[in-house]
């Protein structure tokens, strides 16, 4: 099943990677690597992440305080948000 990103989730990835790169050299790259590992886990076992609503699931990044919020659709897995765990809870609900 293919993964797709909501346009705003794609922007969130870029912003987070830039932020971490400004903190320390290669930290932005480490964030992207960790994101890639989380995406592989989702692809391999899409239903393993807990539900946070009727259809939305949340997968945590292991080294960074971010969650991937996604829905499983018949033909794809759609990433709704790459959300910082301590900021603006549920801001992504309008993306459903």
Compact overview of the structure:
Helix content is 36%, strand content 26%. A four-stranded mixed sheet has the order 1-4-3-2.
Question: How is this structure best described in words?
Answer:
This protein is of the alpha+beta class and 96 residues long. It has a single domain, classed as RelE-like (YaeB-like fold, 2-Layer Sandwich), CATH 3.30.2310.20. It contains two helices and four strands. Strands 1-4-3-2 form a four-stranded mixed β-sheet. A hairpin with a 5-residue loop joins strand 2 and strand 3 (66-72). The chain is globular.
Structural descriptors:
96 residues, alpha+beta, YaeB-like fold, four-stranded mixed β-sheet, 2 helices
